[in-house]
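Record type: ASSEMBLY
Status: queued
Input:
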Amino acid sequence: MKMKYFVLAFAWLSTCTLFSQDYFPKNDGVKAENNNYTALTHARIYVSPSQVIEDGTLLIRNGKVVSVGTNVNIPANSVRIDLKGKYIYPSFIDVYSTFGVEQPKRPSGGGRSAQYDPSREGFYWNDHIMPEADAINSFTYNDKDAKALREAGFGVVNSHIQDGIARGSGVLIALRAEGNDAERIVDDNSAQYFSFDRSIIKNQSYPTSLMGAMALLRQMYNDASWYQKGMVATKDRSLEALIENRGMMQIFAAGDAGHVLRADKIGDAFGVQYAILGGGNEFEMIDEIKATNAKLIIPLNFPDAYDVSDPFQADYVALKDMRYWNQAPSNPKVLAENGVAFSITLHDLKSPSELKDKLAKAITYGLSETKALEALTTVPASILGKSDLIGSLQAGRYANFLITSGNVFDKETTLYENWVQGQKHIVNPMDQKDIRGTYDLRVSGETYELAISGEPSKPKAEIKQDTVKIESKFKYDGDWVTLTLTTPDEEVYRMTARITPGEDNLSGRVLLPNGGDSTFSAAKKAGPEEKSSEKKEEVAGPPVVMPVKFPNVGYGYAQRKTAEDILFRNATVWTGESEGILQNTDVLVRNGKIARIGQNLSPGSAKVIDATGKHLTAGIIDEHSHIAGLAINEAGQNSSAEVKMTDVVDPKDMDLYRNLAGGVTTVQLLHGSANPIGGRSAILRLKWGESADKLIFENSPKFIKFALGENVKQSNWSSNSRFPQTRMGVEQVFVNYFQRAKEYDALKKSGKPYRYDEEMEVLAEILNGERFISCHSYVQSEINMLMKVAEKFGFRVNTFTHILEGYKVADKMAEHGVGGSTFSDWWAYKFEVNDAIPYNAAIMASEGVTVAINSDDAEMSRRLNQEAGKTIKYGGMSEEEAWKTVTLNPAKLLHIDDRVGSIKVGKEADLVLWNAHPMSVYAKAEKTLIQGVTYFDLEEDKALREAIKKERSQLVKMMIDEKNGGSKTQRPVQRKKERFNCDSL
Amino acid sequence: MKNLKYIALALFIGFYQNTSGQQTPAPAQSEVISVTGATAHIGDGTVIENCTLVFENGKISALGAGVSPQGRVINATGKHVYPGFIAPGKSLGLIEINAVRASDDQDEIGSLIPHVRSLIAYNAESKVVESMRPNGVLIGQITPQGGRISGTSSIVQFDAWNWEDAAVKVDDGIHLNWPNTFRRGRWWLGEDRGYQPNKDYQEQVEEVLSFLKNARVYGNGQGAPVNPAFEASQGLFNGSKRLYVYAQDEKQIVDAITSLKETGIDKMVLVGGYHAHRVTDLLKKHNIPVLVNFTHTLPEFDDDDYDFTFKLPKMLVDAGLLVALQNAEASNFQTRNLPFYAGQVVGQGLDKEVALQLISGNSAKILGIDDSYGTLATGKSATFFISEGDALDMRGNQLTHAFIDGREISLETHQTELWKRYMGKYNAD
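Status: finished
Output:
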């Protein structure tokens, strides 16, 4: 009964709310309003991170700030709260939360067959596009979670359903305990959310890959504008929602620095500036991040140190991961120093209570307190477009604020109260006395030493007698202390004492082991020890942060590489041109190009390299590679012409460096062979240390991967439900797509309105001779088929790659004008390579086909010089022709032979200096240059090896110190890169 | 049902036509043959220039610079003679086409199955086996794959009518995959996707040791009822079979050698040995030879030297160990590149003749067939080949003749026949 009255009373008190629902009937009493003011006086008030008022007053009423300042007129009907010595901050805001919104759960079990069609009707064709999802429909206020957030300092959070590629709209919630959703929901259409991750509860196959998700987003925007123009006769509730949500803030959950760039690029193409969730690794590519101009949402997911105390296990942790542990806490600082606007999110933390420590760490690593406060208040408010309502304490804003004992970022500071919409929530009692210190405890004739320490509001106690620790339990709650002491003889004394104002000593009743009771006393000897903070200051100093390398992995360079003018003196020069192999010849590299070839050339200002006894060749070009790709196959449909490998370039892939060490300068990063029409290629220069975009060959000719045979008909898959399942069907896929592309192109050229279809655009480029096909192929029948299909549609296939039975139709290939890019000696791994022979290259070449040797394999790619040598063994190609199979011929096949592939005056200086005959199994690349920049140098490699050893041992020591210091650690992990080939899904 | 039957039949016919051996095995040596004028690479680290090699009844009868030729003479002036190369740890002839399950006989189910024998499943007519010969790879250790103890291998030569003909050494060794210290995180249980310490490592090691201890004491008993796995293991304790232990990292190697020595295993070979260079003293102390990983692999760890796998064999040789190369982790068809794996080490500064030992003399010693194979010596099997040039380099590896036990084998293959057939087509056009 009493309880009920208490609740009622509280409810009445709390009706001083923003929205008095005055049109709601009231049948449990009479209507009453509370229009009194609350004045919080004498506080240090952070009106905003940059505006601080000493000894100020915050006047609030009906949940909002009425006025703030040092000269505030306090009306007579004000409840005054004196906050002398205390601080007021705007409460924190999290833009990226799941609070209160039910999240989908990954269904258990698997083994379902592939689903290619959508499961919904009346929505977009792809189930992972769900802009119609409204978080508000899945929202239930949960005060337990809200309390945890309030205790971490949050007043408002923005929540959404974190599932799918288009995720629908979010809901902005004020975390007030009392009242109802009518008051809590600040905005039920607060933002529209996107990501690259498919829904965990939808089974539709497409997209299976990152580049597929990117293409899907682009097509979604294109389809939306087509729909908006009224060109679609049927109902699409997804697109309607997407269009409706356009007015909201647009937030992209990228979750990684590279993905931030990818998301921003999609936004740029459609006039959308997303605010983007980062991954915590933005410092690694800060220049590119800054250039996006996007506001970021940054998690403080600093990794724990690896437990490297077992040296065997430590071996498995890569330097890049150790270094990342060391560098990650500096991410917020680097962002702030580079002027990137960012908010801080609780996302990726295990619980809101971790925030305080993580913030402290970020600040120790150089983040300014002002920037930290901005990241928790004004920036998230601006990301949400709600700066006029939240994030600061100017008049008219919500009365969402924190009352603390001091600087909110100090470890020792206590958060007393978190007010949301003018409603007070006590986190720690404000007027609780600080009882920390040491006492002489006298109980039942014995004297003990009682030491109370820790946080003032949640102190710990330790009891000793003659330096021997005595078992005890201690609690300080409100004004009461309870203390239980168990003597070594197992006698239990239970004590309670009430704290008396103005009295430092404790005294109260004690229940004795014999059941009787008595009194005890504890006389205070000294205040709390300050030792710990002094100690900290001694060791404190800026933490050691390892410099970021380019790229930020073990073999990264300290600085990005730049071009030099170089004269190679007295080399054996494999020109790859009609000049053949020139002995004792000089090659001058100037401004990234080959300036002169001759004898006794004058170096001018160029650096001279003695190449006596060495061989200088053009850089190796691998026509078929899957290194430096974050994904390889978009296997969700039988055509994926809309996807681009340039979207998924990974400039940190170690195989780039290893390829350079094998003399490789250019690769074609191809889509895989999971479907007849694959994705668009990326032609990459292996510029180790540069960003993904700078790896892409300038003005790359346009390429696309096609595929034939076992892979596209899913011969070796567990699911066999996609068309085509036979080579017969493969032809029909091509004919159908090209016919549609032809019709599409005709419509487009007619000037009539047409639905922009990225896939059709790409296929039309092929028909128009603007894009070249590199087709994965094995047996002669299918090779012949594709040539006939191409001829029917009036174009030529550019390259057959793998082309293992090319030798059987080499005459037809020569006639068609297609090149062949093949393995030197692979076979027997699939049924369709039964007749693959190592003489293939030589036979095709003899029929006049332009022949290249490729790898499709990160290991072989770095030995392509040797693989070229095998064409001499198998089929007797001449040395010069053999060498061209990995240089000039692939350059021709890629239409870049006017720039690279041979040593010719005017061509770009993509060069390799070998210590021996370049096709010898004994040869080593000593220097590898791209456009005159030495990206690999054997001498520098030695220095890198030493630097790696040194940095590893430094970091291992730091991590062991961290562990010994009592910090949490994680088990050692080896993050092995997944290596791709054509079949990788 | 009917359809399926037809499909199966069609597959069988197609398959049968495609997998029959192409070359007829050579008849026994019928006359004395002499190879003259060659540079003979003996396989023990030495070279004899202008060498004459005489062989009869399948055995080398004379060898040297001053030896007078007899019988049929093959003039090999300017050419090179090598002992037939030896490929350890392969499932050649146990699987024909990786992606065709019906052609796969390399991995039996079960974890501790030493009684499973490779020899009886060895397809002497495999097209993949045949393709080894034109590159000089003439002998292989046919090895079951997978599991903890994969089974028992046998050593064969690559020109035979059937597995009995092929056998050089029957049931030569048992192959043990030592437990991994790290394994991929079970991400579906919420673990990190990366490789993490294997929590079951100790337990898995105990399982192996307990098996071997039991196998040993079983041998002291009546042997009834027969336990096939224990029975098959007896050779490990009397020296008639070698134990091939596959282990890569330092802890694995140290644990394997230390604990296996205590179980009474007589002859042990380390296979893999990625970190063997760190524990060379231990390996030497216990006289453990190493069948080291082939060179055409990528480094296991990001921070490793880019050429680590190229030079590891040299590091072990320099430390004084008995070393040979294996490519157990590669596809079988790759095994014809064995000579080039050895050539790769030469680029790292290893002497060419020492590199040759890694695929000939040393391999034979480690596999226990050095009484007949692996080097060129009087009294040994005439298993060798003649190459136009340096057989360890792609450009020089051009075989003109090859002999197994004195039988002159064909250097044609399914592949050379297709080459010739299609060149013939184009030349006629």
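Annotation: DSSP finds 26 helices and 45 strands in chain A.
Annotation: Residues 6-19, 531-538 of chain A have pLDDT under 50 and may be disordered.
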